[in-house]
Design goal:
By secondary structure, this protein is of the alpha+beta class. It folds into two domains: 115 residues, P-loop containing nucleotide triphosphate hydrolases (Rossmann fold, 3-Layer(aba) Sandwich); 182 residues, RecF/RecN/SMC, N-terminal domain (Glutathione S-transferase Yfyf (Class Pi), Chain A, domain 2), CATH 1.20.1050.90. Helices cover 44% and strands 22% of the residues. It has a six-stranded antiparallel beta sheet with strand order 2-1-4-5-6-7. A four-stranded parallel beta sheet has the order 3-13-12-8, with helices on both faces. A three-stranded antiparallel beta sheet has the order 9-10-11. Strand 6 and strand 7 form a beta hairpin.
């Protein structure tokens, strides 16, 4: 068992919440809207250094000056996260206390791997490209400490470029070319890195996903994920040239039309798009297989068994898949939220 207990204050709807994890598998029971997901969010933040669904000011309970998360570990360690008016400052700030030492970010050595399972994940196959990118980017960030940094730099560069596109008119396109070049360069540099890492990650999944699916579904169906890039795979120079060539079009649209922020992930089931060809049960088996692979890759990378956070997903799974879920994660600490105690 990794986590011993959690205490949270002013975190979303929770003014004061405490929970002791006495077994390897723990269930947090409550009605919809009672803040069960917020407890998992607090755990995730203390383990990974950030929320999986919001920025800090949106987490802070209304009319509160701060929120606080305290996670005690079975090995005697402790992580405390505080956000708000710290040290009497009027500015909202975030601070981590790791065994009593203060830092503005959770150090890499203190981050613990997590497999997060949300109800929306069961609808991933039919979701939008944006939702699928967000999902795979989050998982890849668990495996690759440099990936999130590169992705953040790309997104900041993209915002700067889009802001410039909104400021200029077609009459000023030559002036725009001179000021936008640096952002084109940054987008091409980080964009190519992101694509390489995404492609390598999907290749690792594809090497495992069909066999893992068979262990759940007990049949001979084939599963594969296609990383669908906008345009062909290209070098930094080719990426940069396309951004420059499409500048006038982007100026008219008011945003950047080409880039990794438009790429997609397609699930195939027996060589056909799974969205529409796979049954509801088959879709759930595909997502379970994806989660099991995620845990395996994390362990192979870190040699740590990830903490598994399951947010109200048992109600979406039949008994066979529930058993598969618990069996595959029997060696992990599992924290489950539910509207009723699982039978």
């Amino acid at each position: 068992m990794i986590i011993k207990s959690i205490k949270i204050q002013n975190f979303r709807c929770h003014e004061d919440f405490n929970f002791d994890f006495k077994k390897k598998t723990s269930i947090i029971v409550g009605e919809n809207g009672s803040g069960k997901t917020s407890v998992l969010e607090a755990i995730y933040e203390a383990l990974r250094g950030r929320s999986f669904r919001a920025v800090d000011k949106d987490i802070l309970k209304r009319d509160a000056d701060y929120y606080r998360v305290e996670l005690d570990f079975s090995d005697g360690g402790k992580t405390i996260v505080i956000f708000g008016n710290i040290d009497g400052s009027s500015e909202l700030k975030k601070q981590f206390l790791i065994d009593g030492k203060k830092t503005t970010r959770l150090p890499k050595k203190n981050r613990y791997p997590v497999v997060l399972f949300l109800p929306d994940d069961l609808h991933l196959i039919s979701s939008s490209p944006t939702r699928k990118r967000d999902y795979f980017d989050r998982v890849l960030s668990e495996l690759d400490d440099t990936y999130l940094n590169i992705l953040n730099k790309y997104e900041k560069s993209l915002k700067q470029r889009n802001d410039l596109l909104k400021k200029y008119t077609e009459d000023g396109i030559e002036g725009l070319r001179s000021v936008i070049f640096s952002w084109n360069f940054m987008l091409s540099k980080y964009g190519v890195e992101i694509r390489k890492k995404r492609k390598r990650f999907i290749d690792e999944i594809n090497n495992r996903i069909t066999n893992t699916y068979h262990s759940i579904a007990d049949n001979n169906d084939e599963v594969r994920i296609i990383y669908e890039m906008q345009g062909d795979e290209c070098s930094e120079e080719e990426y940069l040239k396309r951004l420059e060539n499409e500048l006038q079009r982007d100026l008219i649209l008011g945003h950047t039309g080409f880039g990794v922020h438009r790429d997609n992930f397609i699930f195939l089931f027996n060589k056909t798009g799974a969205d529409g060809s796979a049954s509801r049960g088959e879709v759930r088996s595909i997502i379970l297989a994806q989660k099991f692979i995620e845990a395996e890759l994390i362990f192979n990378k870190t040699r740590k068994k990830p903490v598994v956070l399951l947010d109200d997903v048992f109600s979406e799974l039949d008994e066979k898949r529930q058993k598969s879920l618990t069996q595959n994660f029997k060696d992990n600490q599992v924290i489950i939220t539910s509207v009723e105690i699982a039978k």
